[in-house]
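PT: before anyone asks, these are the final sequences, not the draft ones from last week. 309 residues across everything. Please model them as a single complex and drop the result in this thread when it's through.
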Amino acid sequence: MELPQIECWLTDMDGVLVSEQQALPGAKELIQQWTEADVPFLVLTNNSIYTARDLSARLRSKGLNVPEDRIWTSALATADFLAGQVPGGSTFVVGEVGLTTALHEAGFIMTEEDPDFVVVGETHNYSFEAITKAIRLISGGARFIATNPDATGPSPEGILPATGAITSLITKATGAEPYVIGKPNPMMFRSALNKIGAHSSNTAMIGDRMDTDILAGMEAGLHTILVMSGITSPTDISKHPYRPDRVLKGVYELVERRADDAVEVGRDEGSRAGGSSGRDSHSEDSSAGDSSTGDLSAGDSPTAGHSPA
Ligand SMILES: [Mg+2]
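LR: through. Structure below.
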């Protein structure tokens, strides 16, 4: 698949590179291809629970070798944005280690005393006490920030309230709306571009959601590629007033076939081996053989296959 004008890549994680249980077909080979060719790329996620190091380890357990400096979370994008607003500022955080670590490393201190910002991120440990504190601080003048807008996330037992649900509670109590950094705010993509020194004109964004990945990618001026390996079905595309630049069945269509790795790719892709004409037999078991060792549970990926993102 030739994309001669694309020199840098941004890609969503859930539904593009991984499903809840395993790496998706071609993900391992595409990451390898970018790495070997020294192509600038970043894996983006709205998940603000984990640090990039945690996510790198989780991807490795699924067979994907993505170094932590190739991962850009909504927590990192939030810290990057706030550091530009109030360098060395202070925050009160409702969130997990992925967010507090990002803010610390960006030079922020955590305080309950008159912070510049109240930052709300994803957590599975919301406390009434912490939310009460957040509400009082925002009412007292602290600026209200959220890492991502997702109202719910998945878990094996059913949906979980996510960042957007908690910020709604705070909004109801304070009358204040948060400024939300994660997708679909193009801010997330702009800071990602800066991180890898990329320009929008020659960068592509790969995603599985029209209303976040494609919308924000389009607004950030990127070449947008929608993959059918996640939440979106072909009939969903026409329901939106905008279209991606390209639609692919999965990232395996972006893997360049070379004579010296044809055998290995063929083995990894199981039932699709044998040529491009067979790529549409996209059965779930085709990649199970070598990439199902990891266990990124459903609850660990709040943006996976869910709405709204
Ligand atoms: Mg996704």
